[in-house]
Amino acid sequence: MTRAELTEKILDIKRANDWSWQHIQAAIGGVSPILITAALLGQMRLPKLPARRAAELFGLSPVEERLLTEAPYRGSLPALPPTDPLIYRFYELLMVYGTTWKELIQEEFGDGIMSAIDFDMTLERQPDNKGDRVKLTLSGKFLPYKYFGAEDGVPENGMRED
Fold this sequence. Notes:
The protein is α+β, with helices and mostly antiparallel strands. It has two domains: 3-69, Orthogonal Bundle (434 Repressor (Amino-terminal Domain)), CATH 1.10.260.40; 85-144, Cyanate Lyase, Chain: A, domain 2 (2-Layer Sandwich), CATH 3.30.1160.10. It is built from six helices and two strands. It has helices spanning 3-17, 21-28, 33-40, 48-58, 62-69, 85-109; strands spanning 112-126, 133-144. Strands 1-2 form a two-stranded antiparallel ribbon. A hairpin with a 6-residue loop joins β1 (112-126) and β2. The longest helix has 25 residues, at 85-109. The radius of gyration is 20 Å and the shape is globular.
């Protein structure tokens, strides 16, 4: 079985049981609800205990349970630019604000990147009488670029110099 086939199986079981992601997240527990959803959609791996709970919940085989614990091939989108309107809006955010985020982050921290590995994310609903709002909070560790061969007072990495 491939990871994509396992994802489809999990989604079929979710549909058949009319389960919400909140129900699934509560039943599995042990890690962030966002991580659980991402793992069941094939983009992250689950640690052994949450994988065991997921296997019990979905009636998965031992091989399928182990597949949930393997590092997946991440970042797979069916098309670029994405055609799903919600996913496209995130793509649009990157196209419009990506260079701004890069400039502002590097002005504040230095020459580097924001990690998507050492990373936290929350999603909240903010009630608003004009229509509820989606609040995403992304928090990634700053990783400065290493300046290879730095000497004579040149900093070892791209952290901002004050």
